[in-house]
C-alpha cells in the first residue's frame, strides 16, 4: 500500500486559501497526481488544503472525503521562554537552541510527557486524535495496528492521498514510523504542495511496516519551472 501525504499549496492565511503562486503549485501538482491510480482522496477541512486538492479532483472527476483530524495541528504550548505576557504558541517552531538540549524530546515515548509539551494537555490530545484517525482509516483497507506493526490478510497495492498541512503531516509520519515528533518538526521541512510517500514493507507474510520513500518531494514544481516556496521555513542566514 502507498500513502501520499501532501501539504497544501503556498497559503494566503488571511483568507484560508492559496496565493497566486499556490494556485500554480496546485495545478502542477494535479498534473503529477492525475495520471496515478489513486484509489481514494482525503482532505483537511481547511480551505487551503481543499483548494490544493481541487485541480486534481477536477482532472480525475473524483471527490475527496473530508477528515477533521487532517486539519493543521491545533495543540499549543505555553511560551517556554518566560516572557511577561504569557501566551500559547504552536509547538513546532521551537528554537533549536532550546529543544536540542532536551533529551526527552528525542525519545519516541517520553516527548509527550516533557513539561513544555504537556503544559496545556493539548499536544497529546491532538496527537492521539491524529493517530486514532489514521488507524481507523487504515482499518478500512485491512491494516490493523499491533505495536509498531500493522497486520493484514492481504497487503494491497492501493494508493491513497492525504491533503493536509505541515504540522499534521509530520505527526502522521511520527505515528507511523515511531519517531519523536519534535525531531521531525525541528529537523524536517515539507515545502508547499510537496508529496511525502510511504509504502508498506511486508517482510513477514501478513505483517507490514510503513517505509518512507520520499519526504517533501517537489519534482512537479521543478518540472514546471515553479520555484519552491519557503513558506514555513526560517531564513538560512540570520537577518536575511
TrEMBL record:
Keyword terms of this UniProt record: Membrane, Transmembrane, Transmembrane helix
UniProt-listed Gene3D superfamilies: Phosphoglycerate mutase-like (3.40.50.1240)
Xref: Pfam families: His_Phos_1
InterPro entries on file: His_Pase_superF_clade-1, His_PPase_superfam
SMART domains cross-referenced by the UniProt entry: PGAM
CDD domains for this protein: HP_PGM_like (cd07067)
Residue spans crossing the bilayer: 160-185
Keyword Transmembrane helix tagged: yes
The protein's name in its UniProt record: Histidine phosphatase family protein
Naturally occurring in which organism (per UniProt): Candidatus Alectryocaccomicrobium excrementavium
Amino acid at each position: 500500500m502507498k500513502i501520499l501525504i501532501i501539504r497544501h499549496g503556498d497559503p494566503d492565511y488571511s483568507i484560508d486559501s492559496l496565493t497566486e503562486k499556490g494556485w500554480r503549485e496546485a495545478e502542477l501538482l494535479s498534473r503529477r497526481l492525475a495520471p496515478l491510480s489513486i484509489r481514494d482522496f482525503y482532505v483537511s477541512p481547511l480551505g487551503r488544503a481543499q483548494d490544493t486538492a481541487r485541480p486534481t479532483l477536477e482532472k480525475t472527476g473524483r471527490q475527496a472525503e473530508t477528515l477533521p483530524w487532517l486539519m493543521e495541528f491545533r495543540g499549543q504550548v505555553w511560551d517556554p521562554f518566560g516572557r511577561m505576557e504569557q501566551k500559547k504558541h504552536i509547538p513546532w517552531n521551537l528554537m533549536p537552541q532550546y529543544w536540542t538540549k532536551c533529551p526527552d524530546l528525542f525519545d519516541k515515548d517520553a516527548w509527550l510527557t516533557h513539561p513544555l509539551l504537556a503544559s496545556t494537555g493539548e499536544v497529546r490530545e491532538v496527537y492521539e486524535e491524529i493517530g486514532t484517525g489514521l488507524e481507523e482509516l487504515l482499518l478500512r483497507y485491512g491494516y490493523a495496528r499491533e505495536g509498531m506493526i500493522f497486520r493484514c490478510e492481504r497487503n494491497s497495492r492501493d494508493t491513497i492521498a492525504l491533503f493536509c498541512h505541515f504540522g499534521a503531516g509530520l505527526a502522521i509520519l511520527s505515528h507511523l514510523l515511531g519517531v519523536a515528533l519534535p525531531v521531525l518538526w525541528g529537523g524536517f521541512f515539507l515545502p508547499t504542495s510537496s508529496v511525502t510517500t510511504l509504502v508498506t514493507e511486508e517482510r513477514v507474510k501478513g505483517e507490514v511496516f510503513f517505509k518512507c520513500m520520499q519526504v517533501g518531494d517537489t519534482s512537479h514544481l521543478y518540472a514546471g519551472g515553479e520555484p519552491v516556496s519557503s513558506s514555513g521555513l526560517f531564513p538560512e542566514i540570520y537577518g536575511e
